[in-house]
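Methods — Computational structure assignment.
A single polypeptide chain was analysed. Its primary sequence is given first, followed by the predicted tertiary structure written as structure tokens.
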Amino acid sequence: MKLTKITKPEPEIFKVHPVKKNCIFKDGQWWWIGDSTGRVRRMEPLIERNRERMYVGGKYISKSHPLYKPGTYKDFSSVAFSSLEGYENSTEGYVYIISNPAWDGWHKVGMAIDAWDRLRVFQTSSPFRDFQLEYCKYFKDRKSAELEVHGLLRLLHTPRKGEWFQSPVEQLKKHIQSIKGEEHGSIDVST
């Protein structure tokens, strides 16, 4: 008895969407294939409908939400600030040092348009409201100044966890003060 190999006819070859896993390109347009149903729908109307939807952190937000604004956002703070004209492009602001007695010897070296507002944000994460703004200095380009300070602290092998550094406040102040480019004088809020 001779065995014959049975072969299935080759399926029609489709282009697969580079991002969306259940999308194919057929007949000159993109099609979406339903997950469980296998229903096939054109992508164009789905894309149009999504332009009017809001997603925050990958989750759909209904139009009845008080901060509703069509688009895709990382978190709600980016939704709120996206409506402020020029916020994203603003470069000026402060490089600051924030401390908390719960982490003795550790200090956050960060940047913000408003250092006092950033302190208020930190206070919401502590039931004791015990974060302190130790020092801040104004720069025309806060992002570059912060990068420069972080780079300097890395070169000095200062122990760190993200933007938290294990170093005395006075030493951190000296490093921030050594950065050129401030428009206003520095503000020592610890005294």
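Note: Residues 52-89 form one domain.
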